[in-house]
Amino acid sequence: MEGVPALDEPLKKSLGPATAKVMAEALDLHTVGDLLHHYPRRYAERGELTTLSDLPLDEHVTVVAQVADARVLTFNGPKGRGQRLEVTITDGSGRVQLVFFGKGVHKPHKDLLPGTRAMFAGKVSLFNRRLQLAHPAYELLRGDSEEAVDTWAGALIPIYPAAAKLESWKIAKAVDAVLPGAGDAVDPLPPALREGRGLTDLPDALRKIHRPRTKADIADARERLKWDEAFVLQVALARRRHADTQLPAVARRPAPDGILDAFDAKLPFTLTDGQTKVSKEIFDDLGTEHPMHRLLQGEVGSGKTMVALRAMLAVVDSGGQAAMLAPTEVLAQQHHRSVTEMMGELAEGGMLGGADRATKVVLLTGSMGAAARRQALLDLVTGEAGIVIGTHALIEDKVQFHDLGLVVVDEQHRFGVEQRDALRGKAHSQGERRTPHLLVMTATPIPRTVAMTVFGDLETSVLDQLPAGRSPIASHVVPAADKPHFLTRAWERVREEVANGHQAYVVCPRIGDEEDQKKKSKASPEDEAEKRPPLAVLDVAEKLRTGPLAGLRIAVLHGRMHPDDKDDVMRRFAAGELDVLVATTVIEVGVNVPNATAMVIMDADRFGVSQLHQLRGRVGRGSAPGLCLLVSEMPEASPARQRLNAVATTLDGFELSRIDLEQRREGDVLGQAQSGVRSSLRMLTVIDDEEVIAAAREEATALVLADPDLTAHPGLRAALDALLSEEREEYLEKG
User: Fold this and answer.
1) The whole model's pTM is what?
2) Which of 40-44, 348-352, 394-398 has the highest mean pLDDT?
3) Are 599 and 615 in contact (CB under 8 A)?
4) Which residues contact 690 (CB under 8 A, 6 or more apart)?
5) By percentage, how much of the chain surpasses pLDDT 90?
6) What's the CA gap between 457 and 699, in Å, rounded?
7) pLDDT tens profile 158-180
8) Do 32 and 8 form a contact (C-beta atoms < 8 A)?
9) pLDDT for residue 175
10) What is the C-alpha separation between 443 and 310, in angstroms, rounded?
11) Which of 140, 147, 679, 696 is 20 to 30 A (C-alpha) from 98?
12) β-pairing, 42-45 with 156-159?
């Protein structure tokens, strides 16, 4: 793909320094290859009008439409009389207003006569509750002048993802300048695969995607380019899986009548079928001499911690140690508390009152006192502690294990591949390096396709039933701007829950102890809702104390508090000494207070779908039903409100994660999870292209098995190098 001299040529050589600078700044395009892989978002047909009826607010759009009417209005402004040109454009599906001000009205007034067809590009904004484009750039679609005939002669006009300073038609002209270079593109797909699947070659695909003559051209090109992305990514993952199978690991089998049997015997309930099935998959993996790499995903509250704890106990039984990594200190402390509570006297190894088969469970976080930390490190290196729970502090060089057999990572989306590898390197067994088994837990359900793409180096286990005794959660959107009385009612509901002996969370996007840099802007009320800083914990807590929740016991919790204070607040809340906890998303994962039944999420539109689902999972953990209120000031028609409605109407995390993916660009999802990989997906949509991804995975696995070093596939190697930064390739090599 891009690892080719001709395509590596900087854009300034072919486009000149000014255009190249804008391309680099606005779209992160630097080479001819980058530009050739900047594909059109869609194509407008000469005879067809794009749909104005579903323009996205706040995005840069390009539309093809016809002028319905145009009028110049004079108005009195702060600097005296001014002129405003209002142009209405239509496309059969809807109408949108364009506005031009001041000296900028003369040219468009002359150009944009009723009946004129043109391409318009600009940012969609709201004014008086109507969508408009202010000062859009435009290009008239006339069929007379020489240049216009050449440029627009093609029946299909490519519309590129554009930016404020770079309209779609300027990108199209730049592509024209570099398209001849497409002939030099080196093809990453092996010829046998390409022919076997009837795919066109890469130079041809690039020509067809940018300058299609027919819709069949577009379909051919898309199919081919999707395969590139899916296949190169799956080869990277297949190489990683292959490298893992070459590594030695110690088989860990639970001892009969050991600590695991003792633990199972004292459980007050039976495991769900799902927990039993998943545990078997994990124990089978632990019993082999290659490292387990498994992703355990399950709904909030499906009992993942129980499954992980039984796996850790199996490893302790076999003479090894297990480490559990949590993304935050609050969570590490919480896991430590719940694990020691679940284990009881089995967690008191070496202490009076500890059971015969007991082990020690130690906590290790960055903020521990020196003496406690020294003792924890000593317990780890001597093997006294069978289980350690901590934050990323566990990966530090100073931390040495006696015999690390299993690593459990909680909440994968905050934990990059590099960190997984650093921890794998920590395993020593009798002086030899042995790779520990790895279990990654996530409470954000991941559609199968995403799991194959993002966590392709892990086998997947799914827990999809809730344990008995969990209560349903009712969720509602509270439109605070349209219906302020709904918000009043929300606070009444919180008081009712507290009066019934329950507790509540109020979640805010921000802490509120930082200086707000933003000056108050003079803008329309719609803009104001957008522009104002997100609501903050400290401000909201103060307002609730003196206002709607006066008299209740309210405390705050956020990430910048001292760890001891955080732990104290959490302990008091868990003990029922507080009624309402006003917090940031530090409570998002793992916080378990069965008596908390209500949650109010302020500025809910500022959170992602999966995050809202996670937060909501903190209530309804006991026998009383849960209530989650999503407060938003966004207008009813906005995409943000539609997202909140989706969260309110379904409790199925897998369904929500699909919605989340459809609404966000997948690049965000993949970029986060595969830290170190540039988001490589331009054409492939993870949700829709399940067949391509599954087929590419099969082909990649077979190819890597036959030729792990890709010796016979130089084009593929070049594409892989372009996808993976050197540092990431090193990790693939290490496995």
Assistant:
1) 0.64
2) 40-44
3) yes
4) 448, 449
5) 23
6) 15
7) 888 777 777 787 888 899 988 88
8) yes
9) 92
10) 18
11) 147
12) antiparallel
